[in-house]
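Each field is set out as follows.
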Amino acid sequence: MKLGASLLAASSLLLMQSLAFAAKLDGGIYLRYNLYPDATTVYWMVCGQLVGGDGCYAHGELSNLERPCAVMEGKSKQKGNVVTRYVYVFDKRSSTKKPGLVNVYLRQDTITDDYVSTDIPLVQQIDSGISGSPTANCFMAGSDSNVYVGTDASQVVARLRSSDLKISAIHGYSDVQSMTADQRGWVAITFFNSSSLLYDPNGTIQGEGGGLYQLSNARNAFTNNYLTAPR
């Protein structure tokens, strides 16, 4: 009886996993990034659990970079057994004479029951309008429609529209101190003169004034490690 119950439980678990994977094709896999200080390359690896087993399936690197310092993925889209999403990488560059770049890659996961094939080609390099700064701290936050990028060496914030990869500049009141977002895509940008800007998921400004606005989401906490550190 115990053996039969165990087999039944195992079968039920496999059925539930199969249903979960069918509902979201990439629900069982993850892509991890390795981004080292002063590195010129972002390394990645795809691992996880598929219907037919678990393991690591693909690895590679994001190239054409000098000083990558922030990485964020965009909203995923699924067509057949292929899941695609943008990957945004901010490059603060190796010299102040060079403009910071937003590098846009297209991650493509082709998923079967027992294997994942992943390709992440570079789509476009975009001048952020922010001066390069090899020693600066970088910030990135966003929604499904907009990505915001900045450093603590500039009061300019770059806003990239994901629909057409067009970039525009937001001029703050002093150098950027932090960027945070909630799960709906509201974004708060704070500056070192204790002022903040608040944007809704569509990229429309909804708040402006004194105080350090901070947003939180269901996955990442905001911290005050950089808020109190000497500059």
